[in-house]
Amino acid sequence: MVTSKNLALLISVLDKKYKDPDKAVEKFVIYAKRKNLLYKLPNVLKHLERRAENRKDKHVTLTVSRDIAPETEKIIRTFIGAGEFIPIEKKIDPGILGGFIAEHNNLVYDGSIDRQLKRLKEVLLEN
User: Fold this and answer.
1) Which is it for strands 60-64 and 88-92: parallel, antiparallel or unpaired?
2) How many domains in the chain?
3) Is the dihedral of CA 95, 98, 103, 107 positive or negative?
């Protein structure tokens, strides 16, 4: 049995696949009509609204010294435990020299070269 929650997930998958909301909705409506599921649309919308509300405050702030490749962004996303649907706000700050600083779920992941150099200096001064 196809639930309205599953249909809401299908819209998200189609949106990601086509990278065009209009095309995703078109494909979804064709599918729902063919399977006689149009009557579930009000509940599908409720699920989508609930998902959007739950994700409203969830995002990642990623500070890097320069723009990064999508593959690198994916590695960082996995490292900090951010799902693929959580939006990333990128900031460019040449002052961090390299690496990244990510803020997610009230945690700061400082993988910057600047932080590593400061830590190395602390270790060397201790000895």
Assistant:
1) parallel
2) 2
3) negative
Task: Output helix, strand, coil percentages for the chain, rounded to the nearest 5.
Answer: 60, 15, 25
Domain that holds residue 94: 60-126
Assess whether pLDDT exceeds 60 at residue 89.
Answer: yes
DSSP element (H, E) containing 44: helix 41-55
pLDDT band at 97 (very low <50, low <70, confident <90, very high): confident
Q: Give yes or no: residues 43 and 21 share one domain.
A: yes
Q: What is the tens place of the pLDDT at every residue in 24-73?
A: 889 999 999 999 999 999 999 888 887 776 665 578 999 999 999 999 99
- CA dihedral sign, ordered 118, 121, 126, 127: positive
The reported pTM is 0.54
- Are 40 and 79 in a shared domain? no
Q: Are residues 45 and 70 in the same domain?
A: no
Instruction: Give the phi and the psi of residue 92 in degrees, each rounded to 5.
Output: -100, 125
